[in-house]
Write a structure and sequence with these properties.
By secondary structure, the chain is an alpha/beta fold. Helices cover about 40% and strands about 25% of the residues. It has 11 helices and 14 strands. The strands form 3 sheets. Strands 2, 3, 4, 5, 6, 7, 13 and 14 form an 8-stranded mixed β-sheet that branches. Strand 8 (about 240-250) and strand 9 form a beta hairpin. Helix 3 packs antiparallel against helix 10.
Length: about 325
């Protein structure tokens, strides 16, 4: 149902009077700099998480099915690296789909700690996992896993602590952020290890198709960021005034995703006005692609020890087991 104009004005006035959320503060900062940008972590409200689940099923989007194939076919080798009674921590857990393959492969996993910024989506997924795995303690943590955090205390009988970071989410970080995350993981997982999935460098045409699907789901996912800002922050983005753009930046080995202004227009946030020229963009995501050797060098720099790597026959994707030395 349409909101009357006076109600909409009152809503936006109330939004401006309230303290800005983390999303609001970062969007305000992102719109104030040049070039404009916003962290991809804010894609994942409930609607964004659902759209991403649809992306993972698209025929053009090879990363999800390829990684799941690796996790399925290499499950015995992965389980041998991890050992029994594992304490599994998943960073950016989402819908908890891939972790089921890992839990099924492991010998008597004891606990699972999914960490995600979208609390509502996470709790629903955790409830379904508890029903399917009653023998495993499921303890979700709503948090930004890129920031310092405290995990639930470890009880008796737990094996090594295992970090799980699939989906090449590491590629969304800048090189500096990727190093910082791996250093954070190394500290959290001391004496255990990190099971990490990363996308590999490949034919740019295949990459372009994966981020510009024929059904337009990725475009809807990108534009949902503006819809979320309108709903939560009282901004006035015209969703018809922006379009999705994604392309491969070969020198930087990354897909870039942008929201492109179709025309000259203005947007308001927290009482401030931001003018867009036609063709100006908001940079919403990077997805860096790796070589196996490059990933290993980054892991070593973070204090992790490369121990095993698994790839598909086409070498589209890779899954790495990186050991975290015990504290001295």
């Amino acid at each position: 149902m349409a909101i009357p104009a006076l109600s909409l004005h009152a809503f936006r006035s109330a939004q401006r009077a309230a303290p800005l959320s983390d999303f609001g503060r970062e969007l305000l900062e992102g719109l104030s700099r040049s070039p404009r940008s916003i962290s991809p972590k804010f894609f994942y409200d409930v609607a964004g998480s659902q759209l991403f689940d649809r992306i993972c099923d698209l025929p053009e989007y090879y990363p999800t099915r390829t990684e799941m194939r690796i996790l399925t076919e290499c499950a015995p080798e992965i389980a041998a690296q991890i050992g029994p009674n594992a304490d599994v921590v998943e960073f950016g857990a989402g819908s908890l789909t891939k972790v089921r393959l890992l839990l099924d492969a492991l010998h008597v996993p004891r606990r699972y700690v999914p960490i995600d910024i979208s609390g509502e989506h996470l709790e629903g997924a955790a409830q379904r996992l508890r029903a399917d795995y009653p023998q495993i303690a499921v303890q979700p943590v709503v948090a930004d896993y890129t920031m310092p955090l405290v995990l639930p205390s470890r009880g008796e009988g737990l094996g090594q602590r295992v970090g799980f970071f699939p989906g090449s989410t590491l590629g969304n970080f800048s090189p500096e952020e990727a190093l910082a995350f791996l250093q954070l993981a190394q500290r959290l997982l001391r004496g255990g290890g990190l099971l990490l999935g990363v996308d590999l460098v490949k034919d740019p045409a295949r990459l372009h198709a994966a981020y510009n699907d024929a059904q337009g789901v990725t475009a809807a996912f990108n534009l949902n960021l503006l819809r979320r800002a309108n709903r939560e922050l009282g901004t006035d983005f015209d969703l018809e005034g922006f379009t999705h753009a994604a392309f491969y930046n070969a020198p930087l080995r990354r897909i870039e995703m942008h929201l492109v202004s179709r025309r000259a227009q203005s947007v308001r946030l927290d009482g401030q006005r931001f003018d867009f020229e036609e063709g100006e963009t908001i940079h919403t995501e990077n997805s860096h692609k790796f070589t196996v050797e490059g990933l290993h060098a980054l892991a070593v720099k973070a204090g992790l020890k490369p121990a095993a790597v698994w790839t598909d026959p086409e070498r589209l994707f890779s899954v790495h087991w990186l050991q975290s030395p015990a504290a001295q």
